[in-house]
Amino acid sequence: MEQKPEPSFEQDSYTILPAPLSKVLTDKDTVEIGGPSYKVLHLPGHSPGSIGLFDEASGIFFSGDAIYDGTLVDDLPGCDKPAYRMTMRRLRDLDVSMAYGGHGAPMSRERMRVIAKAYLDASA
């Protein structure tokens, strides 16, 4: 039996309101979250405004869809192959301890470098 979150809840009229924009992030900005501090990395190619978040102290990297353990997609509307190659060169050389992509399993630095190098070799 399903239970409504509150008596007046109606699923058909439920919407999620967008959060207001408080700041446009640019490359090398810092995002503070009360513990780790993340450096913003602009990672275009897969999509125009892609960013990654890198905690330089721990080496933890969140890449979004810029890189992940799987076949990288560069043929959708908005993809930019020359920009993606620049992003792959940047990621190949990034000194991470662990990378978390938008898809698939987390990656070691070595696995991320293998994926970036494979993309660069295939698109040369």
Report on the structure:
The chain has helices at residues 81-92, 109-122, and strands at 30-32, 37-42, 51-55, 60-64, 98-101. It is an alpha+beta fold. The protein has a single domain, classed as Metallo-beta-lactamase, Chain A. A hairpin with a 4-residue loop joins strand 1 and strand 2. Helix 1 runs antiparallel to helix 2 (109-122). The longest helix is centred in the last third of the chain and has 14 residues, at 109-122.
Quick structural overview:
It is built from two helices and five strands; from the N terminus they run ββββαβα. With 124 residues, the chain is of the alpha+beta class. It has one domain: Metallo-beta-lactamase, Chain A (4-Layer Sandwich), CATH 3.60.15.
Poorly predicted residue ranges: none
Tally of contiguous helical segments: 2
Percent helix: 10-25%
> What is the N-to-C succession of helices and strands?
EEEEHEH
Q: Briefly note the structural class of the backbone.
A: alpha+beta
Per CATH, which architecture? 4-Layer Sandwich
Strand content: 15-25%
Q: Kindly give the count of domains.
A: 1
* Spatial order of the strands forming the largest sheet: 1-2-3-4-5
Largest sheet: 5 strands, mixed
**Globular, elongated, flat, extended or rod-shaped: what is the shape?**
globular
Q: What is the CATH C level class, in words?
A: Alpha Beta
Strand runs, count = 5
> What is the terminal separation in angstroms?
57 Å
Computed CA radius of gyration, to the nearest angstrom = 18 Å
Going by CATH, the homologous superfamily would be Ribonuclease Z/Hydroxyacylglutathione hydrolase-like
